[in-house]
Design a protein that fits this description.
The chain is mainly alpha-helical. It contains nine helices and no strands. Helix 3 packs parallel to helix 6, helix 3 runs parallel beside helix 8 and helix 6 packs across helix 7.
């Protein structure tokens, strides 16, 4: 898989569906991003257990799904640490209907808040800005499914998606666990 395809919603959703895992690809990406943005340590591997419990009733993730989850986890870390701000939300494609895209962004922010909450359950949130992000994401998750297929809705969707992306970067910059010290130790 190329780096581009790792964040391809359709490919991830196809694997989840084929393996009979009742999960929305955008929500899965959101949960992983929420965990990482809230300070989850890169070296930790219990995220697989969390994903298994959340999306597969603790019955063991199929090999193909486990592989996708590991790839997404790695890609999220890489893009959040990237100085060129390469992080992207994994959402339904622009060719999909506005309702499908709105559903995907709602599932994504819902997943983010879930992952964030799992990581932050014992820790106070760092700032008012981060609290506002979590509150805004809860509102975005509850947007109406009754939306128009017009240019104004399209523009609003892109503005919301950009706000979500920038907000993730804010959360990660405040609470994320940097890898720099670990990478420097490895280089010596």
């Amino acid at each position: 898989m190329s780096d581009e395809s790792l964040l391809d919603f359709a490919a991830v959703q196809a694997v989840l569906t084929a393996e009979n895992v009742k999960a929305h690809g955008a929500e899965l990406h959101g949960v992983l991003t929420g965990l990482i943005s809230a300070g989850y340590a890169f070296e930790s591997t219990d995220y697989l257990t969390m994903i298994n419990d959340l999306f597969n009733n603790g019955e063991g993730l199929p090999v193909a799904v486990k592989s996708i989850v590991k790839q997404l986890y790695s890609e999220i870390w890489q893009t959040l640490l990237d100085d060129s701000y390469g992080f992207r939300l994994m959402l339904a494609d622009d060719d999909d209907s506005m309702a499908e895209r709105a559903n995907a962004i709602g599932a994504w922010v819902q997943g983010f808040n879930l992952g964030f909450g799992l990581q932050q359950k014992d820790t106070a949130i760092a700032s008012e800005d981060v609290k506002e992000v979590i509150s805004d994401f809860a509102e975005i998750a509850n947007l109406s499914d009754d939306i128009d297929e017009d240019e104004a809705t399209e523009q609003a969707y892109y503005e919301i998606a950009e706000y979500v992306k920038v907000s993730v970067l804010l959360c990660f910059s405040e609470l994320g666990t940097p890898l720099e010290t670990k990478q420097e130790e490895t280089l010596h």
